[in-house]
Design goal:
By secondary structure, this protein is mostly helical. The chain contains 13 helices and 4 strands.
Length: about 300
């Protein structure tokens, strides 16, 4: 679920948009100061690159009109696969992890049952209890299992590619709409894009996010979901992105009705998907650059060279 700008003071707290497979995608203010991250960035060169975007190719989004309803058919026509299921959380990674744990422990328990004497009685029970512990932790505090599930998910052939496409979409749409990026990561369990914008940050935390900025944040937040929807039959990184969008919606003045929120979400997916399709070469180049751990400036260069 990384353009950044230290257009504000480097010590400003960055908004973090993290993402991944069942990614912990969420916008948040990082607890640590961004000065450490900023120290690893050539701020002069980065500022120059961002100024070029701000005064040149920055895309202006037309405001979302509450009267214009975005239908699932529009999303399907654009190329989104299984548009009706976009908001349904995926349990692919969780299910695969639990099946593997239960299957492996059950197999080992059967083997251990062949041990002589009391060992053949106690060891199978001890091994079998592992599954119960995992299921118990998953029921009480599922967050504790996310690192293990994330690491296990790397067995899926499309795992790293999904992460790269998802995060690159957030990065690219942020770039196109002029929201500065400080950093990013594709590391398992740490997938994120850090954004810095002092004005937007103040609006969010004051609970006075206006329609214009909400539209922009909605499109950026839904970009990862849109990228997966265009490429895969099943989206698995949408949960945290939808949660992040809901946080923004809760801080909007005036508040939106449930129908307005649903329509804005669909509209944001539609706009994000349109931008990604129209800038496919840039997105592909960015995926490649981020996969090779390019710097933020290197990523911006990849976008510009592909445009």
């Amino acid at each position: 679920m990384a353009i950044v700008a230290a257009l504000v003071a480097p010590t400003a707290n960055p908004l973090r948009l993290a993402g991944g497979q069942r990614y912990r995608s969420n916008w948040r203010v990082a607890s640590a100061s961004s000065s450490a991250a900023a120290s690893r960035v050539d701020l002069k060169a980065l500022g120059s690159a961002i100024d070029k975007v701000k005064h040149g190719s920055t895309l202006r989004l037309s405001s979302h009109d509450d009267g214009d309803e975005t239908s699932l058919r529009e999303l399907t026509t654009l190329g989104i696969k299984n548009a009706e299921n976009l908001a349904i959380p995926s349990v692919r990674n969780d299910a695969a992890f639990l099946v593997t744990v239960v299957g492996t422990t059950s197999f080992l328990a059967v083997i251990a049952g062949q041990l002589p004497g009391d060992w053949g009685f106690f060891v199978p029970y001890l091994i079998g209890s592992i599954s119960l512990v995992v299921l118990g932790v998953g029921s009480i505090s599922p967050g504790l299992l996310q690192v293990a599930i994330g690491s296990f998910s790397s067995v899926f052939p499309d795992y790293q590619e999904r992460i790269a496409k998802h995060e690159a979409a957030h990065f690219l749409i942020s770039y196109l709409t002029g929201l500065p990026i400080l950093g990013y990561s594709l590391d398992i369990g740490k997938e994120h894009v850090n954004l810095v914008d002092k004005q937007i940050e103040k609006l969010i935390y004051s609970g006075k996010l206006d329609q214009k900025e909400l539209d922009r944040l909605a499109v950026i937040t839904m970009a990862g979901l849109a990228a997966e929807g265009l490429e895969y039959d099943k989206v698995v990184g949408q949960s945290a992105d939808l949660f992040s969008l809901q946080r923004f919606l809760n801080r909007t003045k005036p508040p939106l009705t449930k129908d307005q929120q649903q329509n804005l979400t669909r509209w944001a997916v539609l706009i994000a998907a349109s931008l990604l399709k129209n800038n496919k070469a840039a997105h592909d180049a960015l995926v490649s650059a981020m996969s090779q751990k390019a710097t933020v400036l290197g990523c911006i260069e990849a976008i510009e060279n592909a445009s």
